[in-house]
Amino acid sequence: MSDPRPFAERKADVLARLAAPVADCWVATAGGDEPYLVPLTLAWVEERIILATDRRSPTARNIAASGRARVGLGPTRDVVLIEAVLDETIPVTESGAVGETYAKRNDWDPRTAGDSYVFLALKPVKIQAWREVNELPGRLLMRDGAWVTR
């Protein structure tokens, strides 16, 4: 087991993962008592997580109803866990720079998927990151939408 990363390195690693091309993630939502988990690809645009999905999907419906989602990136020994709130829902037909940026960073363009697709712009409110048990004590990087300062 390697030494725990310093806070600045851990934050830089999280930002690099979010900004990476074709950043795959798991998105957890709930509709009533029904949890729902789906793999999606994100784009990090203006400090928001941008997801693309059909507006009729359980993910879009659950986020619209609750205003919340949990996003996970990475394998079990290099976890980034993000709690986020819905900032806005953007129809792909009206997405402008958000749609352009998403398409440039990913391997598909949701704007070609039909007008039932939307971009869900999520604002992170809590971010945690850790690799091994020795990084658990310093895993909190963002609280209440603001980066923790160390």
Look at the helices and sheets and give the structural class: alpha+beta
Number of helices: 3
Kindly state the percentage of residues in helix: 10-25%
CATH architecture tag = Roll
**Name given to the CATH homologous superfamily:** Electron Transport, Fmn-binding Protein, Chain A
CATH topology: Pnp Oxidase, Chain A
* Poorly predicted regions: none
Give the N-terminus to C-terminus distance in angstroms. 24 Å
Query: What is the H/E order?
Result: HEEEHEEHEEE
**Number of E-type strands:** 8
Protein name: Pyridoxamine 5'-phosphate oxidase family protein
Organism: Paractinoplanes rhizophilus
Describe this structure in words.
There is one protein chain. With 150 residues, the protein is α+β, with helices and mostly antiparallel strands. It has helices spanning 7-19, 58-66, 96-105, and strands spanning 23-31, 34-45, 48-54, 68-73, 79-91, 117-130, 140-143, 146-147. The two termini are 24 Å apart. The longest helix is centred in the first third of the chain and has 13 residues, at 7-19. A hairpin with a 2-residue loop joins strand 7 (140-143) and strand 8 (146-147). The chain has 3 helices and 8 strands, in the order αβββαββαβββ. The model has no long low-confidence stretch (mean pLDDT 95). It is globular and about 50 Å long. It has one domain (7-135): Electron Transport, Fmn-binding Protein, Chain A (Pnp Oxidase, Chain A), CATH 2.30.110.10. The chain has a 6-stranded antiparallel beta barrel with strand order 1-2-3-6-5-4. This is Pyridoxamine 5'-phosphate oxidase family protein. It comes from Paractinoplanes rhizophilus.
